[in-house]
């Protein structure tokens, strides 16, 4: 398994699913891989990227707040209560940040939130105990609402709730557990400027419907009910209450306690992948389908036991019992307005997904944005047990 999020938005390839990413206490460049021989394939301008070989730990039913308070209490306090990561930590923090779960959480979070070329350095007294490099720079999105925001200073403090919503989208992608070579496109010029152009020739795998347009970010800042409906992995979540209700903004009724709003990921490459359930995703039940063993139904969503980090859409029936696909070219008649126009790999326009919640008012188009993940299968390269890249 491998995913992207790396310096310069290039790609980093991990050919062996069992591989393990470990970090030296004070650096983030060391990679120790367990199992069979692996190969790192990076662009010439790339830096060390995310290898999420053993971590599904960004999605926890009990919520990241509770999880971190048990596993990494000093880090949790700094990230969510006091802020200012540059301020020295108590002496006990040296042992805490050496724990793999704490180190990996901070590693992935810094890669997501901090821009490429910047670093987060953590210290005890005058001694540096850890350093984490940025890559994707999602703080750029948060700053559209809070111009003064920086992850290093404000982290996930209560005064900046949109930061939690933004990073949740990245956590969902990281924990999806898809064995692919992946490039990450945001359709935000500032974040995409350094991506390798060749990545746009990879097959298109899926896109994420997230309210990261300027209108969507502004709505989160001004409408508490809209903000509350966006996925937030920091909150506790009952996997049996996965639903689409968070996609609606006109229905202001409170959602049930423990509800599970997850990012909706739309399949973008039906002929390319024959996966039943990609990675750890939930998936909308196909017409006349029987849920696979080891799953349960929440509404019409197939959920793996233990939950999932996102809901996966490729096609579903509407009220008239017609199948509606994510690619508008496959739809006919009055469903033609649904889906996206596919201009080319990584180039989707005019997306409209009222069908995601057909019995409720849809999310306004002004709130919809999408990140396109380009995906290329990873061929078997390290012998038996290493997988064929299409798990």
Can you describe what's shown?
With 391 residues, the chain is an alpha+beta fold. The protein has one domain (7-376). Helices cover 20% and strands 19% of the residues. A hairpin with a 2-residue loop joins β9 and β10 (301-304).
> Would you tell me the overall average pLDDT?
75
The profile of the biggest β sheet is: 8 strands, mixed
Rg computed from alpha carbons, rounded to a whole number of angstroms: 20 Å
How would you describe the shape?
Answer: globular
Number of spatially distinct domains:
1
What is the strand arrangement across the widest sheet? 3-16-4-7-11-8-10-9
**Approximately how much helix is present in the residues?**
10-25%
Ranges where pLDDT stays below 50 over 5 or more residues in a row are 1-56, 381-391
Distance between the termini: 9 Å
What share of the residues does DSSP label as strand, in percent? 15-25%
- Strand segment count: 16
Structural class: alpha+beta
Give the count of helical stretches.
10
Order of secondary-structure elements: HHHHEEHHHEHEHHEEEEEEEEEEEE
């Amino acid at each position: 398994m491998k995913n992207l999020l790396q310096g310069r938005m290039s790609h980093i390839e991990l050919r062996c699913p069992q591989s393990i990413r470990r970090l030296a206490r004070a650096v983030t460049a060391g990679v120790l891989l367990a199992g069979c021989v692996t190969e790192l394939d990076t662009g010439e301008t790339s830096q060390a990227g995310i290898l999420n070989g053993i971590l599904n730990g960004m999605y926890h039913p009990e919520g990241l707040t509770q999880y971190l308070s048990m596993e990494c209490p000093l880090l949790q306090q700094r990230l969510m209560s006091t802020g200012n990561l540059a301020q020295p930590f108590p002496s006990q923090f040296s042992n805490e940040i050496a724990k793999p779960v704490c180190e990996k959480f901070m590693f992935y979070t810094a890669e997501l939130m901090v821009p490429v070329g910047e670093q987060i350095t953590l210290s005890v007294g005058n001694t540096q105990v850890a350093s984490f490099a940025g890559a994707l720079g999602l703080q750029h999105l948060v700053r559209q609402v809070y111009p003064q925001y920086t992850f290093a200073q404000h982290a996930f403090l209560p005064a900046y709730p949109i930061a939690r919503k933004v990073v949740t989208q990245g956590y969902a992608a990281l924990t999806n557990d898809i064995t692919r070579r992946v490039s990450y496109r945001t359709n935000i010029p500032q974040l995409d400027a350094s991506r390798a152009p060749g990545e746009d020739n990879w097959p298109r795998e899926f896109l994420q419907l997230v309210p990261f347009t300027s209108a969507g970010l502004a709505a989160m800042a001004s409408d508490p009910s809209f903000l509350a409906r966006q996925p937030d992995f920091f909150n506790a979540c009952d996997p049996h209450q996965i639903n689409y209700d968070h996609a609606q903004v006109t229905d202001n009724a409170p959602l049930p306690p423990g509800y599970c709003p997850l990012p909706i990921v739309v399949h973008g490459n039906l002929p390319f992948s024959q996966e039943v359930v990609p990675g750890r995703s939930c998936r909308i039940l196909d017409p006349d389908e029987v849920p696979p063993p080891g799953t349960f139904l929440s509404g019409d969503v197939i959920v793996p036991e233990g939950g999932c980090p996102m809901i996966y859409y490729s096609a579903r029936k509407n009220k008239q019992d017609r199948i509606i696909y994510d690619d508008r070219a496959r739809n006919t008649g009055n469903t033609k307005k649904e889906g996206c126009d596919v201009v080319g790999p990584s180039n989707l326009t005019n997306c409209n997904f009222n069908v995601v919640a057909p019995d409720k008012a849809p999310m306004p188009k002004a709130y919809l944005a999408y990140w396109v993940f380009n995906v290329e299968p990873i061929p078997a390269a390290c012998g038996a047990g290493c997988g064929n890249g299409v798990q």
